[in-house]
Every structure is written in structure tokens, then in C-alpha cells.
Amino acid sequence: MATWTNNELARIERADELQMEPVRVDGMPPSSVPIWVVRDGDDLYVRSFRGQDGGWYRAAVASGTGHVRSGGVDKDVALVAATDGVVNDRIDAAYRTKYSRYGARYVDPLVASRDTTLKLVPR
Domain of life here (predicted)? Predict the structure, then answer.
């Protein structure tokens, strides 16, 4: 299994947004969507601001794969559901810390959408 390099992790962690392009199972070209990304140890995670209704999220779950660009890193990824409660507690804290300057209006929906947490696994 591939892993992120320390350089890739640091560059993506410093970036405000990540461009997500989930592979679409209907054969249509993927759309690029800017989303927030957080780091937990050697792993990167994303969530859907719109919860399970988010279009990019539905496409990501359907295919389980995508492409991301952030901080000069350009990678194909597997998108793996993160259901561990302890990990999600850390992800909640990471979102609150990294994006606190945007206020509760934006951060609270991401914390509330923990059932959409996806781990980005390089391929």
C-alpha cells in the first residue's frame, strides 16, 4: 500500500483547500471541487460540507477513487470511509483548529458531517 511522503503531508496540511476530483461511475469526466482537508498523523481526511447530499461525496463513495491536488501535490487516491470514533474525534479537533478563523458557520457543518469522513490513501 502506498503512503504519503512527509513532504506531501506537510504541503497538503499547509494548504487551505484541496481540489477533489472523484471518479464518476457514469463515465462522465470528474468535476474538480475545492474542499477542506485535515491531517491526523500520517493520514489525510476530508468531509462533505453538505453531508451525504454533497455531489462530490456521493461520487466519491460510489467509485471509491479520485484525484486530488493541493499544495503542489497531484495524486490519485483511494477514498476510504473512516468510521472509527476516536479518529473522528481527532478529525473534529483538526477541523476546529485549522479552520477556526472562518467561524462556526463553516466549521460546525463539517464537524456535524463526521459520517462523511473519508481517508485519502495514495494509489
Answer: Bacteria
pTM above 0.85? Answer: yes
Confirm whether 1 is domain-assigned: no
> Residue 14: helix, strand or coil by DSSP?
helix
C-alpha distances in Å from residue 12, one per residue of 24, 28, 62: 24, 27, 25
Residue 86 lies in a domain: yes
What span, in angstroms and rounded, lies between the C-alpha atoms of 22 and 35? 12
Give buried/exposed letters for 17-29 (b at 16+ CB in 10 A, else e): ebebbbbbeeeee
Per-residue pLDDT tens for 36-81? 999 999 999 999 999 999 999 999 999 999 999 999 999 999 999 9
92 close to 55: Cβ distance less than 8 angstroms: no
User: In terms of DSSP H, where are the helices of 41-84?
Assistant: 55-63
CATH of the domain at 100: 2.30.110.10
Cell, residue 103 = 467561524
